[in-house]
Fold Hydrogenase maturation protease.
Amino acid sequence: MKATIICIGNRFVTADAAGPAVYDRLQQLALPEHVEVIDGGLQGLNLLPLLERGGRVVFVDAVRGFAEPGTLVVLDGAEVAATEGGEHFGHEAGLRYLLTILPKVCDGTLPEEIALVGIEGAWSPSLIDQAAGVSVRLAVNGLQGCR
């Protein structure tokens, strides 16, 4: 199955730079041919066309309020979309809104599976390595293979 890993965040704001740090780490790895890695930055709704190609989509982003600082959380797309308010994500809950609006505006093929690798709180190089590994496993095996 075709898979896309989209790393989101602001590399110039330390508290929001986990996604871009994972993107940089993934660029150093040999990935399966069917896995594409994208630096989603702060594109918000501009990411919609990337979600209209079917396959599996894995987001990587900084989160807060899901777990202890310095840990990873893995959520499926429905869990992200169902999250109340914007307290768990930066960018005024942009990812939650993106996933909520996607089925209403999709002109292409909806993803078969959506997951989020959330990096809670301050991050370290080892946590970035861990997030990169989890992201690739999710892209290749899906949620069933990683939970």
Remarks:
- The two ends are 19 Å apart (CA to CA).
- Residues 59 and 116 are 5 Å apart (CA to CA).
- Residues 86-92 have pLDDT under 50 and may be disordered.
- The domain at 3-145 is CATH 3.40.50.1450 (Rossmann fold).
